[in-house]
TrEMBL record:
HAMAP family, sorted: HisC_aminotrans_2, Phe_aminotrans_2
InterPro entries: Aminotrans_II_pyridoxalP_BS, Aminotransferase_I/II_large, ArAT, HisP_aminotrans, HistidinolP_aminotransfase, PyrdxlP-dep_Trfase, PyrdxlP-dep_Trfase_major, PyrdxlP-dep_Trfase_small
Any one Pfam family match given in the protein's UniProt record, by short name: Aminotran_1_2
Function: Aminotransferase that catalyzes the conversion of aromatic amino acids and 2-oxoglutarate into corresponding aromatic oxo acids and L-glutamate.
Protein's recorded name: Aromatic amino acid aminotransferase
Lineage: Bacteria, Bacillati, Actinomycetota, Actinomycetes, Micrococcales
Domain of life: Bacteria
Transmembrane segments: none
Entries under NCBIfam families matching the protein: hisC, PRK03321.1
Length: 355
């Protein structure tokens, strides 16, 4: 009996593992998915309710009004914005627009686990460059990994799951070393949480380098993870190509109106971000006081380099009522959540062998 063949790339495609959810009927703090712990603002909920009455209609295919609002908030032209179903979808559209079969994409590892998936689905080959022991991207090694086959380099800042942000001086040296026809994607999903004064200014870098594309999202700081809306910022010619490769009607009408409402409430939402940053500082300080070696985090999570103990530690946390995200053999990522969740997690971490 003959069967339809699947693409060979799918055989080696690593699965995307979502953060654990509490079983039905169970209670646990969810610190496994880097979600914003605050519920939507009333003004955003109202926008969602208003949009719901129109779900029998297709959305604006290119999210025109949202794109204009994003562009105005960033100081770029509207034709530089391409929206997508989360920044991960925008990344897929970027890779589809520029990669041919056999092209190479240089990426840090460990980093965002969707990268190898997106690269393979675009028909390209991923070249992984190890992240340093301090959780920082090794941009010098990434530049050295660029070959004539390299089409794209992915730079996650702050890096998920380890946390540090790329510094301006190291990014400047990196961009000077990378050929101008190689696309550099700065994934800034957590940019609103950055407080490191040495961190690179993505928008300034974008303005200076035509081969740089930014990725951003409404899932984290803006708290719209359940509605899936993100975007790429690119030069108009590149943006047009990315837009051509994007999924038609990829951002729902509900998501578009919620994102617009969130932009209007930006100041209020960023005060919530300040609260998350303060809780991050409390978590980092407490872990270090317990004796843990924890990388600097500029995102809404912290990283514990537990190695082979990662899975057992996550199981211990779950039994205590707090869900974290293990990366088997590497470490555990802990999202910053409610203060009560931090307290409970710190009770578990204090009982574990310290590093």
């Amino acid at each position: 009996m003959s069967r339809v063949a699947l693409r060979k790339a799918l055989a080696d495609l690593p699965p995307y593992v979502p953060g654990a959810r509490a079983p039905v009927g169970a209670a646990a703090y969810k610190l496994s998915s880097n979600e914003n712990p605050f519920p939507p603002l009333p003004s955003v909920v109202a926008a969602i309710a208003d949009a719901a009455v129109d779900v029998n209609r297709y959305p604006d295919m290119y999210a025109t009004e949202l794109g204009e609002a994003i562009a105005a908030s960033l100081g770029v032209t509207p034709d530089s914005i391409v929206t997508g179903c989360g920044s991960v979808a925008a990344l897929g559209h970027v890779l589809t627009a520029v990669c041919e079969a056999g092209d190479e994409v240089v990426l840090p590892w460990r980093s965002f686990e969707a990268y190898p998936i997106a690269v393979s689905l675009a028909g390209a080959e991923g070249v992984r460059v190890p992240v340093g022991a301090d959780g920082r991207l090794d941009l010098e090694a990434m530049a050295e990994a660029v070959t004539p086959r390299t089409k794209v380099v992915l730079v996650c800042t702050p890096n998920n799951p380890t946390g540090p942000a790329v510094h301006a001086d190291e990014l400047a040296r990196f961009l000077a070393a990378v050929p101008s026809d190689v696309l550099v994607v700065l994934d800034e999903a957590y940019v609103e949480f950055v407080r490191d004064e040495r961190a690179a200014d993505g928008l300034a870098v974008f303005a200076e380098h035509p081969n740089v594309v930014l990725l951003r999202t409404f899932s984290k700081a803006y708290g719209l993870a359940g509605l899936r809306v993100g975007y790429a910022v690119a030069r108009p010619r590149l943006a047009a190509g990315i837009r051509a490769a994007s999924t038609p009607f990829g951002v729902s009408h509900v998501a578009q109106l919620a994102a617009l409402a969130s932009l209007r409430a930006r100041d209020e939402l960023l005060r919530r971000v300040d609260s998350v940053v303060a809780e991050r500082a409390r978590l980092l300080t407490a872990l270090r006081a317990q004796g843990w070696t924890v990388p600097d985090s500029q995102a809404n999570f912290v990283w514990l380099p537990l190695g082979e103990q990662a899975s057992s530690f996550a199981e211990r946390c779950a039994r205590a009522g707090v869900l974290v995200r293990p990366f088997a053999g590497d470490g555990v990522r802990v999202s910053v959540g409610e203060p009560e969740a931090t307290d409970l997690f710190l009770e578990v971490s204090s009982e574990v062998t310290r590093r």
